Amino acid sequence: MDFKGWIRTSLIEYPEHIASVLFCSGCDFRCPMCHNAHLLLESNTPVIEPEQIAEFVARRRGLVDGIVISGGEPTLRPGLIPFLQQARSWKIDIKLDTNGYHPEVLQVLLNEKLVDYIAMDIKAPPEKYPALTGVPAVDINRIEKSMALIRASGLAYEFRTTVVPGSLSIEDIVKIAGWIQGAQCYILQQFRPISTLDPALQQLSPYPRQLLYQMANAAKPFVELVRVRGIE
Fold first, then answer.
1. What's the pTM value of the predicted model, to 2 decimals?
2. What is the Cα–Cα distance from 111 to 103, expressed in whole angstroms?
């Protein structure tokens, strides 16, 4: 598994865990608001070897109790399943961050019980997916298959949307909430105008917190738990 980034310990990336966060390269989306743009393409950044991670987890046993596999898009990587099979031997909880575009990989991970928590990005309501993913021919059926698999898995999970100013409105958030109606948890993430793939977005100001809370309240009739994340 070719990890290209690593946060040794984080208190915010995995609910109720102190987690080590691993970032892989490569993604099939080109979301204009992505702030991990340096990970979208294969790069010359040195690979972090699984042995380094295993040694770190062993040293921090009892402190670090989770790992997060993020990206880029982890389900694109051929080494994902072997790495997670190895990680299971560490007796540590595993969270996967995914864009949901590869339900066939999610199915394998769920069948083999290789993850404990899934965070899936819901970029926009269906009609805005091409604009918010940078993929004109995006296949919404694949997104919906992943949503269904996650909801039926019995695992803890969250669906989450980065609220991009000018691109997503309260009406859009209500549409998303209706799309995922009955979901376990829906997170509205504050937009960060830092190192975005589209440089123009770096000039945007995030929505004020009051508007994010209005959006959350508008989504609550549809989703069991709605939270706002990333505001100061």
1. 0.94
2. 12
